Amino acid sequence: MKFKFVVLFLFSGILSLSAQEEINKLNAKGERVGVWKKDYPNGRIRYQGQFEAGKEVGVFKYYSMVSSEHPILVKTFSKSTNLAEVVFYSEEGILESKGQMDGKNRVGKWLYFQKDGITIVSEENYENGVLNGISKTFYKSGIPTEILHYKNGKLHGKVERFADNGVLIDDLSYVDGKLQGLAKYYNLDGKLIYTGMYENDEKAGKWEFYDDGKSVRPDTNTLKQ
C-alpha cells in the first residue's frame, strides 16, 4: 500500500512538472510560444493566452486581483493583423464596453453599456486612440442625450443636445474644440429661446431672444454661458 502511494505521488509530480513545462515557453529566438499564464502575487490568475512566434493569437483573458470567477477583459487577437476584438466586464461578469484595439490604441466604434450590460449608454469612434467622427450618449430610453463630432480628439462640427423627450435644446458648432458660428437654444417644447454667434469660444455681435417663437429683444454679449 505504501509502495502504491509513493508511485502515485511520484507520478503526480511528473505530471505537474510536465504541465509547467507546457506553459510560458520561449522558442530558440527568445519569442513567446504556446500557452502563457501569469499570476498576481496573491496567487490569483492575472491572464492566460497563447502566442505564436511572440505574437498574441486567439483569446486572451485577464482577471482582477480580487476575483478569478470572471475575466474583466477578453481580447481576441487576429492572426493576420494587429487588431484585437476587446470586451471589458465588471468583476461580476457584466458587459461594460467593447470595440477594437490596435496595440494599446482604440480604433473604430466603441460601445459603452449601462449597469445592466445590455442598454447602450454611449458610442464613440476612434482613430489611433483619438476621438474622431461622431460620438453619442443616450438616455436609458435610447433617446440621444448628445450627438457630438470630433476631429483629432477635439470637438469639431455640429454639437446637438436633446431633452429626454427627444426635443433638440442646443444646436451648436465647434471648430478645433471651440464654439464657433451660429448657436441656437430651444425650450423643452422645441421653441427657439435665443440665438447668436460665437467667435473663438466667445459670444459675438447681436443675440436675439424669443418668447413663444417671437423675437422680444436683441442683446449684445450679455448672456453668460
Describe the structure.
By secondary structure, the chain is mostly beta strands. It has a domain at 127-224: Histone H3 K4-specific methyltransferase SET7/9 N-terminal domain (Single Sheet), CATH 2.20.110. The chain has one helix spanning 2-21, and strands at 25-26, 32-39, 45-52, 55-63, 71-77, 83-89, 95-102, 105-113, 120-127, 130-131, 133-138, 144-151, 154-155, 157-162, 168-175, 178-179, 181-186, 192-199, 202-211, 214-220. The protein is 9% helix and 58% strand. The protein is elongated. Strand 5 (71-77) and strand 6 form a beta hairpin. The chain has one helix and 20 strands. The protein has a 20-stranded antiparallel sheet that branches. The relative contact order is 0.05.
Short overview:
Residues 1-19 form the signal peptide. This protein has 225 residues and is mostly beta strands.
Question: How many E strands?
Answer: 20
Number of helical stretches of at least 4 residues = 1
End-to-end separation in angstroms reads 86 Å
Average pLDDT metric? 90
**SSE order, one letter for each helix or strand:** HEEEEEEEEEEEEEEEEEEEE
Kindly provide the radius of gyration, computed on alpha-carbon positions and rounded to a whole number of angstroms: 28 Å
Largest sheet: 20 strands, antiparallel
Write the layout of secondary structure elements.
Layout: H1 2-21, E1 25-26, E2 32-39, E3 45-52, E4 55-63, E5 71-77, E6 83-89, E7 95-102, E8 105-113, E9 120-127, E10 130-131, E11 133-138, E12 144-151, E13 154-155, E14 157-162, E15 168-175, E16 178-179, E17 181-186, E18 192-199, E19 202-211, E20 214-220
Antiparallel strand pairs: 1-2, 2-3, 3-4, 4-5, 5-6, 6-7, 7-8, 8-9, 9-10, 9-11, 11-12, 12-13, 12-14, 14-15, 15-16, 15-17, 17-18, 18-19, 19-20
Signal peptide: 1-19
InterPro entries: MORN_2
Keywords: Signal
